[in-house]
Amino acid sequence: MGSRATPWGAYRTITDAMRRRIAEGEFPPGTQLPGEAALRAEYGVARNTLRRALADLEREGLVVTVPGRGRRIAQPGESAAPAPAFRRISADLRAAIERGELGRGDVLPSETALTQRYGVSRWTARQALAELESAELIETRHGKGRFVR
User: Fold this and answer.
1) First and final CA of the chain: distance in angstroms?
2) Are residues 138 and 147 in contact, defined by beta-carbon separation less than 8 angstroms?
3) Whole-angstrom Cα distance, residue 74 to residue 22?
4) Whole-angstrom Cα distance, residue 146 to residue 107?
């Protein structure tokens, strides 16, 4: 089914219906949700529409995504999954900038330094730096490094 076949705002209808099904006990805590294909067929929507509804439920803390296993209903008091590594790195660097530890014009740690410090891949370090750059907190000077704006 193409994305044009899905009515505008359909994800909200799915979110509301799933929220109601969870509240009524059809899906008790810890229950594995049906797969995306089954839910798409049930609601007659495109994959992106379904994923948007499930993402809303996850943000609300009702659904938990388990990598490689799918989604399940969250247990009471269960916290969300930890932030991706690149978000933790960018949050640390952002905090250092906000505290003044890294001031305007200061050079940021290199991708290599970040990979060693955080035990992540170069791609993950690059993602963290790109997030800070898109927030206009840092700038790249080709051949020289990344600097606080």
Assistant:
1) 46
2) yes
3) 10
4) 6
Asked if the model's pLDDT at residue 1 lies above 80, the reply is: no
Q: Dihedrals φ, ψ of 71, to 5°?
A: -115, 150
Cβ-count burial of 99 within 10 angstroms (0-12 exposed, 13-18 middle, 19+ buried)?
A: exposed
Quickly count: other Cβ atoms within 10 Å of residue 7's Cβ: 10
- Residue whose C-alpha is closest to residue 91's, from 12, 61, 66, 99: 99
Give the closest residue to 146 by CA, choosing from 86, 71, 93, 68: 93
With a threshold of 0.70, does the pTM exceed it? no
- CB 94, CB 101: distance < 8 Å: no
Q: What is the pLDDT of residues 65-111, one digit of tens each?
A: 887 788 999 998 776 556 678 888 998 998 899 889 999 999 999 99
